[in-house]
Design brief:
It holds the Pfam family T2SSE. By secondary structure, the chain is an alpha/beta fold. The chain is built from 14 helices and 17 strands. It starts with a helix and ends in a 7-residue tail after the last helix.
């Protein structure tokens, strides 16, 4: 076991050495010359053929140039060159690693990776800025997106459901900046989140009843707190007989539901023409006979249409918002509506928010990277011109005798007041079902 670790460490040491970078760069130039000679024929080769071609050419090059490398180092260089020609270079292993959530590139020498909510610097690096740009353009090519001086920023959805954001110099001062957000091929279900400790089984029952009784839910939280994953999980409670329309800036939701229509906004061209906003899509979705509307993230003028939809027959709709607490979530809804040109009074806006939103689920990322639901709050109305709410559950960890912090959620012992939940319970009782929560 220890010999395997030492072997892996030796490999990493060599990969991170200047010698490795230099040899890879020299042989890459040689391979590009040979590919030019092959012309269109190379484009038809399989990955296995490319790998064989790389190994043969590398062996020949090393012998002729008397490059001082052993067989193990040759294999490492051949593997890197194959990824360079047929894949995504230094990013390939990270893109294929199921534990990697985010890949952040700050110039060609710095790559950071988030695993299980914890950000760490990787030992990998690119040769130079041109190398980073070449790999990113290869990722963008099948998407039909450009990244150059006339279009120095790009935000795009990847074929596997992830997304990439890139910005080049001179806008990015210290070198090209790239952010890649990955998503699981099999989205987490509520039972998975319970097992991971995001919330407990009792809270899962409450959320299930809230979704099935068509309550409108806002998932609130900070960046990378798990809002999208939680929204995906909540959507699994939606009955199969309902039609769901999802609206997002960059499509990230992957609902395990039979009848979903996915809509994605369009940023428009370089001159600003052809923009289709979330607000445009929300207005159009109301004519698409949706049972529920799910907005990936509420961040602008679409907040007015979303609240109107929630108030006019589209109960059970959901969305996420960037906010640090349930009260802050309400303030942000007010602020966004004000920016969107809401014409009514402050009190009428607050009544509309109180009528539209039934529950706010606050989720956060702890210092150790764990995602936890911090609060489940119910909106109960408007009192003295303030939107009133009651907290049903609160995250309140305890320190065990061994000094470890343990998850704990405190129930305040208050049953939801929502008429929708009451009607749902009554229906279950009439049908002889399970009237939980």
């Amino acid at each position: 076991m220890s010999s395997d670790i030492a072997f892996a460490d030796d490999n990493d040491t060599f990969r991170n050495s200047q010698q490795f970078q230099d040899i890879k760069s020299w042989t890459h130039e040689h391979l590009l010359s040979r590919i030019e000679e092959l012309g269109a024929e190379f484009g038809r080769w399989s990955r296995a053929s490319i790998q064989q071609f790389v190994e043969l050419e590398l062996d020949s090059f090393v012998r002729l140039q008397r490059v001082p490398v052993n067989d193990r180092e040759m294999l490492l260089i051949a593997d890197a060159l194959t990824k360079e020609l047929a894949g995504f270079g230094p990013l390939e292993d990270l893109l294929n690693d199921p534990d990697v959530e985010d890949i952040l590139i700050n110039g060609h020498k710095q790559i950071y990776v988030s695993r299980h909510g914890v950000l760490q610097r990787e030992s990998l690096r690119f040769n130079d800025e041109e190398h980073v740009l070449r790999i990113v353009r290869r990722i963008l090519a099948p998407l039909g997106r450009r990244l150059d001086e006339s279009n120095p920023m790009v935000d795009a959805r990847l074929p596997d459901g992830g997304r990439i954001n890139a910005i080049i110099e001179p806008l990015a001062i210290d070198g090209m900046s790239v952010s890649i957000r990955k998503f699981r091929k099999d989205p987490l279900k509520p039972a998975d989140l319970v097992q991971l400790g995001t919330f407990d089984a009792t809270m899962a029952q409450l959320l299930e009843i809230a979704v099935k009784s068509r309550c409108n839910i806002i998932v609130s939280g900070g960046t990378s707190s798990g809002k999208t994953s939680l929204l995906n999980a909540l959507a699994t409670f939606i009955p199969e007989t309902e039609r769901v329309v999802t609206i997002e800036d960059t499509a990230e939701l992957s609902l395990g539901h039979a009848h979903v229509v996915r809509l994605e906004s369009r940023p428009g061209g370089f001159d600003g023409a052809g923009i289709v906003s979330i607000r445009d899509l929300l207005r159009n979705s109301l004519r698409m006979r949706p049972d529920r509307i799910i907005v990936g993230e509420v961040r602008g003028a679409e907040v007015i249409e979303m609240m109107q939809a929630m108030n006019t027959g589209h109960d059970g709709s959901m969305g996420t918002i960037h906010a640090s607490s349930p009260r802050e979530c309400l303030y942000r809804l007010e602020m966004l509506a004000g920016f969107a040109g809401y014409q009514g009074s402050e009190s009428s806006l607050r009544r509309q928010i109180a009528n539209a939103v039934d529950f706010i689920v606050q989720i956060g990322r702890l210092s150790g990277g764990q995602r936890r639901i911090l609060s489940i709050s119910e909106i109960t109305g408007v009192n003295d011109n303030v939107v009133a709410m009651q907290e049903l559950y609160r995250y309140d960890p305890v320190v065990s005798p061994d000094g470890q912090e343990r998850d704990r959620w405190v129930s305040l012992g208050i049953a939801p007041h929502s008429a929708k939940v009451t009607r749902f319970r009554q229906t279950l009782q009439r049908e002889g079902g399970d009237a939980r929560a």
